[in-house]
Inverse folding.
């Protein structure tokens, strides 16, 4: 929360111009709920999307068919955590660990490919 202004000011990728038809959206987790965070986000021209804690549980209670919306990073970490050797880092060298991360990422990508024969599952 305290480093939010520094993070927002240090954006490396140039953003397209902000218009009413195409506003810049910023998605954040429950750690950025509050008036100060909202004002800092809006001061930099972003439209804040912050989900407070429990909002997803309330949506599930109202609609049992509601599927939770996950952030891309959370889903990716979950997929990588299914590889036990990556979950607890046993590798001594950085290169061997990165090689295992790349192999795991390739296996995840191949599993997402639809087709009659998948080389990962057989």
């Amino acid at each position: 929360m305290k480093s939010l202004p520094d993070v927002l000011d240090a954006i490396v990728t140039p953003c397209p111009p902000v218009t009413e038809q195409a506003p810049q959206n910023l998605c954040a987790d429950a750690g950025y709920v509050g008036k100060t965070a909202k004002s800092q986000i809006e001061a930099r021209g972003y439209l804040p999307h912050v989900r407070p804690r429990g909002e997803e549980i309330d949506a599930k209670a109202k609609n049992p068919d509601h599927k939770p919306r996950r952030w891309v990073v959370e889903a990716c970490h979950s997929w990588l955590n299914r590889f036990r050797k990556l979950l607890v880092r046993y590798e001594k060298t950085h290169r061997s660990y990165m090689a295992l991360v790349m192999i795991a990422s390739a296996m995840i990508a191949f599993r997402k490919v639809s087709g009659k024969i998948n080389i990962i599952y057989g």
Summary: DSSP finds six helices and two strands in the chain. The radius of gyration is 20 Å. The beta strands are 24-28, 46-50.
